[in-house]
Amino acid sequence: MPMSIVAVTVDCQDPRTLAEWWATATGGEIAADYEFYVALSTPGGLTMGFQRVDDPTPGKNRWHADFKAADRAAEIERLTALGAREVGTHTVPGLTWTVLTDPDGNQFCVSSDH
């Protein structure tokens, strides 16, 4: 039997604060808070974890989450109002996506509904 994904976990210095930001961004809710690790349940069924580490990896994260939205531009506007920072927008035939960072600098993408 192949493995299955359980959660995506982000190393950070303040798990509760970052989990609350992502809860607002995704419409999810905090499912568990162990102080050093906070789990967030998202409406899409993915669990996002936020784990306290003394020294988060510097620079660009090596992998990231991709989200889609029916109205990408409106979602980008909403997320930047919450504190996300827009990095850039890219287009290939049939797909447009925008790279953003959360308040801790972790990159994620929002694409057009496809």
TrEMBL record:
Q: Which ranges carry the VOC domain?
A: 4-113
> Matching SUPFAM superfamilies, A to Z?
Glyoxalase/Bleomycin resistance protein/Dihydroxybiphenyl dioxygenase
* InterPro entries assigned: Glyas_Bleomycin-R_OHBP_Dase, Glyoxalase_6, VOC_core
Record-linked PANTHER family: CONSERVED PROTEIN, HYPOTHETICAL FUSION PROTEIN
**What name does the UniProt record give this protein?**
VOC family protein
* Organism of derivation: Actinomadura fulvescens
Taxonomic lineage: Bacteria, Bacillati, Actinomycetota, Actinomycetes, Streptosporangiales
